[in-house]
From TrEMBL:
One of its GO terms (cellular component) is plasma membrane. This is Iron complex transport system ATP-binding protein. It comes from Marinisporobacter balticus. Pfam families: ABC_tran. Residues 2-238 form the ABC transporter domain.
């Protein structure tokens, strides 16, 4: 589905990420985790063609991403950053409508087929009862659902989500991640996202990548790679690691923070 090979990424000749290689299968949820400054968001920007890598290549369905037209990429991949803004007096439905832009010529308006897709995106993100509300009148969690709805209206194959739960309370964090998981399971979307919370990464991901200082420290199923030694080395924290009541997912409970030079 999506392959990244030999990525080297940086700014102004300063290398931030190097030797980055992944293969994400169709329908997988892959989460990138790691300390602040480890290069998580930088990787996501490069995968989404928002930042040109110094070296390396991305293949989407065997096509070189950097040889594809912008509109063709937008039809296959939707990228949501940490902060997304829209005019405060714009309605939810109007924002979602922008998701159809990649499928339209510059002079084309919205037709009946577009309206059906917009209705579907609004329904899937549970926004139907508030679609005529203005953006200024909705909560942070509702706003995130609007941006995901706009991404769905693009009808992409891949969703890139950069810290989709940032600035949200725990209730809204769970709501957004449950929605992402629901869309992944019901619509077979491939999802690559950046998260900070280890418990959320373990619960919602098929695989995780652990980054430290711009290099991959581990890649695999959360229950197979996230152990005490790895977490201590990457985060400088001792953790109790438990199984949930079903014996399936991991639960991380911090014990002790170590100095960075230990």
């Amino acid at each position: 589905m999506l392959k990244v090979k030999n990525f080297k990424i940086g700014y102004d000749q300063k290398v931030i990420v190097k030797d980055f290689n992944i293969h994400v299968k169709k329908g997988e949820i892959l989460t990138i985790i790691g300390p602040n400054g480890s290069g998580k968001s930088t990787v996501l920007k490069a995968i989404g063609r928002l930042l040109k890598p110094m070296d390396g290549i991305v293949h989407l369905d065997k096509k070189n991403l950097w040889e594809m037209k912008g509109k063709d990429i937008a039809k296959n991949m939707a990228c949501l950053s940490q902060r997304n803004t829209a005019p405060e007096d714009m309605t939810i439905r109007k924002v979602v409508t922008f998701g159809r832009n990649p499928h339209k010529a510059w002079f084309e308006g919205i037709n009946k087929e577009d309206e059906k897709i917009i209705d579907w995106a609004i329904e899937k993100t549970h926004l139907k009862d508030m679609e005529n509300k203005k953006m200024i009148h909705i909560s942070g969690g509702e706003s995130q659902r609007v941006w995901i709805a706009m991404a769905l209206a693009q009808q992409p194959k891949v969703l890139l989500l950069d810290e989709p739960t940032t600035y949200l309370d725990i209730n809204n964090q769970i709501e957004i991640l449950d929605l992402v998981k629901e869309l992944n399971e019901k619509l077979n979307f491939t999802v690559i996202m950046v998260l900070h919370d280890l418990n959320q990464a373990a619960k919602y991901s098929d695989k995780v990548i652990v980054l430290k200082n711009g290099e991959i420290q581990a890649l695999g199923k959360p229950e197979e790679i996230l152990d005490k030694d790895l977490i201590r080395d990457v985060y400088h924290v001792d953790m109790n690691i438990l199984k949930n009541q079903f014996g399936e997912k991991l639960i991380f409970i911090p014990k002790k923070i170590h100095g960075y030079n230990t």
